[in-house]
Structures are given as structure tokens and as C-alpha cells.
Write a structure and sequence with these properties.
The complex is a heterodimer of chains A (about 425) and B (about 325). Helix content of chain A is about 35%, strand content about 20%. In chain A, strands 8, 9, 10, 11, 12 and 13 form a 6-stranded antiparallel sheet that branches. In chain A, α2 runs antiparallel to α3 and α5 packs across α6. In chain A, about 55% of the residues are buried. Chain B is about 40% helix and about 20% strand. Chain B is globular and about 55 Å long. Chain B is of the alpha/beta class and about 325 residues long. Chain B is built from 10 helices and 14 strands. Classes of the chains: A alpha+beta (about 425), B alpha/beta (about 325). Chains A and B meet through α9 and α13 of A and α5 and α6 of B.
Amino acid sequence: MAASMACQAAVRGLRAASTKQLLVSQNQLSRVSPRRWLNLQEYQSKKLMQDSGVIVQRFFVADTASEALEAAKRLKAKEIVLKAQILAGGRGKGVFDSGLKGGVHLTKDPAVVGDLAGKMLGFNLTTKQTPKEGVKVKTVMVAEALDISRETYFAILMDRSCNGPVMVGSPQGGVDIEEVAATTPELIFKEVIDIFEGVRDDQALRMAANLGFKGPLERQAADQIKRLYDLFLKVDATQVEVNPLGETPEGQVVCFDAKINFDDNAEFRQKAVFALDDTAESDPLETEAAKYDLKYIGLDGNIACFVNGAGLAMATCDIIDLHGGRPANFLDLGGGVKENQVYVAFKLLTADPKVEAILVNIFGGIVNCAIIANGITKACRELELKVPLVVRLEGTNVQEAKRILAESGLPITSATDLDDAAKKAVAAIAKK
Amino acid sequence: MSHCRLFARLLLQQAGVRHCYTGNRNNLYINKNTKVICQGFTGKQGTFHSQQSLDYGSQLVGGVSPGKGGKTHLGLPVFNSVKEAKDGTGAQATVIYVPPPFAAAAIIEAIDAEIPLAVCITEGIPQQDMVRVKHKLLRQNKTRLVGPNCPGVINPGECKIGIMPGHIHKKGRIGIVSRSGTLTYEAVHQTTQVGLGQSLCIGIGGDPFNGTNFIDCLEVFLKDPKTEGIILIGEIGGDAEENAAEYLKQHNSGANAKPVVSFIAGLTAPPGRRMGHAGAIIAGGKGGAKEKIAALQSAGVVVSMSPAQLGSTMYKEFEKRKML
């Protein structure tokens, strides 16, 4: 269900991306799930939803086969769905290195649940969205399987053009929402929410009706919609996407799957949510960098970047590419960077085996160039720098910084501007 | 008759929210007479940048630090609130260096005090908080907000509000508006080097919900006789650049169009990742650099593929138009 959603053209400013879809990018990005963007396992998202009174399938989690068996028995469900818990999508069609095919199984027999769980837990599950070696499964979800008679799509997100929260829904759920938007845009319904007013009753009911819920289900759906909005605010989400928001033959409105994107800026007041973050499937360099408050994103190339300011950092990657090189990373040191952060960042970059050259591009506003220079020289000495280092500095205290670098005796190539720096970095690799 | 009135009221309600706020774009044009106060005055950032501001020659007249009212800091009076500071100094602008958990409240305090210009430097304010701030902001017209997560506003040689390095600026003819702080410095450095200088530089910041957008600044630049050329620096995420392109098509075309040069950062950014700035993210296929570049080019903007060629590109445009 979640896997059927693609990251293509969106609906009039609607951000319908699912975090799991990030892995199927057309770009050369070969890394696994993004770090520095909170990722929750399915069971964690569903627990958050349950805590807000949102109806999800009843479930337990298990870390061992016997726990899974017990959970299956305790569920007392007509039918059980067993789901491996990994962040990557495409679980249904995945393969375990135990030989078991499929990360999602349906059965009526608890014994089968225990048996299958034994072939999942502790084994690697490989899907279209995981790296080749797959991801180790540490947890499984044992849930009550419910029939879906109708699937709808529902999302709440913070929308820039509406200056706040927006609800988007379609009675055509369970499929690629972008396709719906492209072929039958009249089936996409939108409600702008006033942040101080919240979701009004009439808005919730209208959305429920537009989603195709009739009779008593309309009220049920409206209630679920309001609870989803409460959750959206409570956890400082930037997006909550439910696909499908389904209707069961027994007349229940159930959220069968949900993707929640969280606002990183709210971490200081969402400690419990952020503590759930599972970095096991993340790039270890990114996880390490995050510990020091460095904004680092791993890319595919061999020229490491070391920049202050997000815009300049993006531009540095762009200009390396423009001159025929391949950036190894995005790194924004930020404004109030301290000397030890510079040292740590440098250490991280040089620890990446892919890196064949380093480009430092610093334009100091808040950042004092001399601090950067001291951090670099210290790191170079201690780490015995082996790759070419191209440095372009400008701004606050730049003369002092240039002096520090020149007197360090280190093999540093100076550059006058960004073009010059990028060309030199690319040339340095070509020389080898 | 009542039908018309109802319709008119509905139109006004929908359009009124924007019209109300967009009337005060001129508050962006700070000058040597602009009196500035600092919120977060006695904090580390506030102190450092206030001193820099004084060294530059800006008219910093005091600051706000709740609980420290009555004291003196950097030789200037400290007040407990924005209202007291405004009443006590006649300040027309405030610069906010308050940490993320309290920054939104600081902005709201400035709006409540009806201070004409509020510049919020803080990075990391939760988006929900800014949505609430913006709700209030759009329904009034006394206060114009710039930022958050921005380097500030500078009229070279006259007034500097923010963290930008003053010494790279030179009074001149180019208006610069940017979502990125350090890329602004690049543009400033280059335009200074080619001798064109800057009339007014506005950093609108990298957050998805902010107080001032490209169009707000473009209107000021287009109306300002001192601004003869415009540099617009954008990045991935949202549709501010596309909206700016539409605006330029309508208001900056024909024989008297001012030359506009642009750079859009993030052509190599992978989708779905937040590239430093909270607003710099390609999500659901939207917000990519290619589309922004195309939109701007269709509006007659000269888009440079290299961030190091902004000054030279603008120089060439001036040459073409015999403006040198």
C-alpha cells in the first residue's frame, strides 16, 4: 500500500512523498534511509496514532518467535497479518536470507505466525528499497488482519501557499495519488485549516463525505480526521499521510497505514518522539555528524565538501558537478560553529574511503575564518592528511586565517573563488 | 444589493488577508535614520552582533532582555519589553537573536508593539510556531517581518541589521534578495568587485514559513530608482521562485525592465532530503531547481549556472544596456 505510492509530480503544492519512497530516487543516491529526518518503524507510527485515538488494526510487537506466537494467540483475531518491521518499503515482495519469501504474511493460524516469525527475526530482508545485503529484522508486528471494502487517501500537511495546515483527501485511495491528481483531479479534495481554529465540524464532515463515507461512517470518518489533526499538531508533524484510510465490511473506518514526517526544528520539545528514531538503517557518517550538530548528507562522489551555510553548501556541490566532478557529501557547518566541530567534521570527511579530495569553501559572516583555519590545521596534523586539500576562504578574519594556513606547512592549495576552487579540486583528482 | 455586498465581503476576506500585510513593504528600506533595538540583547549572539552593528555605524539605540530592564549594555539602555524599548527610544526596527524555543513569542511581541520592521535571525524555530506567527502577521499591517533563519537586511553605508559582514558591502546599484545567507555574501562580494555595489540587500531566509518573500522585495527594488539591477538567489523547495517569475513577467518586462540575474542552489540535491535549510527540500516531485530555473528564464531573468559568476553576469547585462 505504502509501496504503491511514488514520488512523482504532486498535487498543487501537496507534498505526498512517503519517507519510504525516498529510497527509489532517480538520482544516483545509493545510501539507505535518510538520517537527520526522523524515521519511525510502522509499529511506532501506529502506536502514536493509537495514543491519539486513531483507529488502527489491533497489534502487538515481538522480538522473538515465541513472543510472536504468544501475540498471535492473544490477538484472538479471525485472521492475522505478520509484518517485518524495517524502514524501507517494498516489504511484501522482499526476500529473507533464511529463504522465506515475503516480508508480509497472512494466516489464520497462530502457530504459523510463530513459525514464520522465526524465519524473519534475526535474518536480513532484502527489498527493492534496501541495499543489496538487505536489512536485519529485529522486530515483527503481529496485527489483526481486516478486510478493506473501500480505500481512500487522506493527508494533512503544512502547506506554504496556504500558510498553514491543509487537509487533502481522495476517495481513490490505495493507489498512486499523483496519478489520481493527474487523471481525475476532481477527485482530490482540499480543506485549508486555520491554525487557531483547528478542524471545524463542517470541514471534517465535508471531507468525510467527499471521501465517500456514508451514513454513520461519515461521522466516524470525521472523528478520525479530527484525531489525525490532533496528532499532527501534537507531534509537530510536517505531514501525516494515511493511505489507505479504509472502510471495512463490518462498517469501521480504519487507518491501515500511515507515514508521518516530523519537523526537525521541534526536536527540543518532542524528545519522546525523537527518542524512537532508529538509526540502524542510516548512513553511519550521517548519524555521527548529527551527534555534533553538523548537517551532513552523504552523496555518491569523491570530492568532499566542507562549507558554511546551507545555500553555499548546495551551491558548492552544484559547482563541483558543473566542472565535471562528483560531490561526496553536503555539509553545512552552520553559523555558530566551534573549533572542535570543525575538527570533528574534518575527521569525518577524511574517514570516508570514497573521498579523494577535499574542498573547503568558507565565507565567514558569523563564522570566524581563523577558527576554521585552526580546526583544519589541527585535524590535518593529527589525521596525516593523504588527499589533496583545496581551500577557499573569504570574509570575517580571512587574513588571519590565510596566515594560519600558510604557516602550517601543510600541502594546501588555495583558491580565489568558488569556480577556481571547484576546478582545482576536480583537477587534483584527475592528476592522481 | 445585499448579494453584492456579501460577494464583496467574501472577496475582501480572501484577498484582504494578503492586501493588508503587503501594504508595508516599504518598511524594508532601512536607512541611516533607522533606529534599531535588539531582542535577546544581552545574550551571546545579541551582544556580539550588536557590537558589530555599532561598529558599522548602525543606529542601535537599545535592547530587550526581560528581567534586565533598567540596566545598561554596550553603553545602551536595556528594557524589559519591546513596547517599553520602542516607547523609550523611538525605535522603528528590531533585530531578534532569541533561541528557537522562545523566538516565535519574541516576534509576536514585536508585532504587538507595532514596530515597523522585525528581523528574526534565529534558525530552528518549529514550523508550527511560525505558522501561528504568520497567521497574526498577515492580519495586520504595522509590522513587517523578515526571516526567520536569515542573515538580515543591509543598506550599505547606512544601516546594517543582522549578521552579514559589513566590510564586503559597497554602496551601489544592485538590489539583492536571497534565501541563503552565505550565497548573499558571494553575490555582494562579486558585485563589489566589479564596481557595481549594492543598494539594498535582503536575506529572506531558508525557512518554509517566513515573513517576507521574493515578491515583497522585488516590488521595493522595481520602484526604487537607486536599484538598477536585481540579483535573486533561490534554492530548492517550495514555489517562491516560480511566484517571483510570474510577478516579474507582469511587472518587469518591456524596454524599461531592470536586469535580473539569478542563481538557484540545489541542482544536485537528492530528492526528499532537507538540505540544511528547513525549506530546502524537494518533496513529492515539487520544488526542484530545474523548474525554478526554467520559470525564471521564461520571465527574462538571466540565470547563472555558477554562483561565482553573479557579479560578472550582472556586469555584462549593464554593458549590454549601456548602463555602465
